[in-house]
Design goal:
By secondary structure, the protein is an alpha/beta fold. It has a single domain, classed as P-loop containing nucleotide triphosphate hydrolases (Rossmann fold), CATH 3.40.50.300. The protein contains 13 helices and eight strands. Helix 7 packs antiparallel against helix 13 and helix 8 packs parallel to helix 9. The relative contact order is 0.20.
Length: 289
């Protein structure tokens, strides 16, 4: 299997030289229902408003929903690229919100077991992801191997949690899983649905302190998003909350977070992993099966 993975690396050598210097952001959570996908989409829009070109990839391999949040029907997804039924250009969807998206598919989880020709189709498709300079990967909830692998390939991984005790416990769980990876992963913490800045600070300090004490991992506090009735209302209407009202409490919080991300981007521009890091992750996933 390792020999096959090495073959995949050789196939990929031509891709690495053609890719641009992109920023990969993975968004993860320990449990579902914390607002992770909503944040992924609206963060993408907030970044695009700051003149960034953004692609959001739905990497929830079982319960893909990014296209639903933007109110669009996705006839094709990444699995169609793997099976050479569609090109990447045909799978990537434009949206009215100045971002592009790629819908996920349950079959995508079988990438480690697909035929050589299918792997090559996937690599050729990945090579086409050169138009955007920021790629946001919305993973599934939990600590499945593919979720941790997406975290490992990113320039930074944002762990989303809420002040609920179960959410805090599960956030610690995914941070623990990430800390066990051999390579250092840049982990940032975002507290969603808070009632006050004091609550956000209390929750973040608790998680960051415990992670440092028991896991010896430095987690950075990225920010918080206020509880806001506009968010569930926008979901019902299938419009990202940032697009529905970019002056709402939640949207203003996201503006602050987007600006912080870009400031970090500027400092670490030359250290971006980009598409080469993304595909390397899939090769590692493949070699470990």
């Amino acid at each position: 299997m390792l020999d096959q993975a090495e073959g995949l690396r050789k196939e990929f050598m031509g891709v690495q030289s053609n890719t641009v210097n992109q920023k990969i952001i993975t968004i993860a959570s320990g449990k579902g229902g914390v607002g992770k996908s909503n944040i992924a989409v609206s963060l993408g829009i907030a970044l695009s408003n700051l003149k960034e070109k953004v692609l959001v990839i739905d990497a929830d391999l079982g319960l893909a929903n990014i296209n639903v949040l933007v109110g669009q029907v996705s006839d094709y997804n990444i699995f169609h690229v793997i099976k050479d039924l569609k090109t990447m250009d045909e799978v990537v969807m434009d949206t009215p919100y100045n971002i592009r998206i790629i819908s996920g598919a349950s079959g995508f989880s079988q990438i480690a077991n697909i035929a050589d020709s299918d792997r090559k189709n996937f690599i050729n498709g990945i090579e086409k992801l050169n138009d955007e300079n920021i790629i946001i990967i919305d993973t599934g909830a939990g600590i499945a191997r593919n979720v941790i692998s997406f975290a490992a390939c990113a320039d930074e991984t944002i762990v989303v949690t809420t002040p609920e005790p179960t959410s805090i416990t599960d956030a610690y769980g995914i941070i623990k899983a990430i800390s066990m990876e051999p390579n250092k992963i840049d982990v940032k913490l975002l507290i969603n649905r808070v009632k006050s800045t004091v609550e956000a600070k209390k929750v973040s300090s608790r998680i960051i302190s415990i992670a440092k004490q028991f896991l010896d991992i430095d987690v950075e506090y990225l920010g918080f998003i206020f509880e806001d009735s506009i968010v569930p209302y926008s979901v019902i209407h299938q419009v990202p909350f940032y697009a529905y009202d970019n002056r709402s409490k939640a949207s203003l919080c996201l503006d602050h977070i987007a600006n912080r991300i870009l400031n970090v981007n500027d400092r670490n521009f030359q250290k971006r992993k980009g598409i080469s890091g993304l595909v390397d992750t899939f090769m590692n996933m493949y070699s470990k099966q």
